[in-house]
Amino acid sequence: MxxxxxxxxxxVWLGMVIAISFLEAPLKFRxxxxxxxxxxxxxxxxxRALNRAEAVLAALVAVxxxxxxxxxxxxxxTALAVALLVVQLAGVRPVLNRRTDRVLAGEDVPRSRAHLVxxxxxxxxxxxxxxxxxxxxxx
Length: 139
What we know:
The chain is mostly helical. The chain has helices at residues 2-28, 36-68, 72-104, 113-137. Helix 1 (2-28) runs antiparallel to helix 2 (36-68), helix 2 (36-68) runs antiparallel to helix 3 (72-104) and helix 3 (72-104) runs antiparallel to helix 4 (113-137). The protein starts with a helix and ends with a helix.
């Protein structure tokens, strides 16, 4: 049963990442009347909510994996997904938040490389989560 919960949480997590990071985030800037400042303000709220949900799902996956004594590949994929989330939350998001604060305050700031790091982590996570779900279901 723990393997099933790990898989369910991994696939829900994947769906949220795809829906928000790969659909909502880029599309909101194409909507009529959405300025960079408005888009960043919306994005800050949406990603804060996403990241909280991700933390809950990551904890659920980790507990299911540990409690279920699942095999090494599942443990490794779980560790990778959780590590990517930690890098995003602890390393990249603070940098992006400081930049967003400056933009929202009216400053003209250059593009941030931190955004590319966030996207790279999100992309690897989007590949890791289905592998995790499939590996958990194979147990």
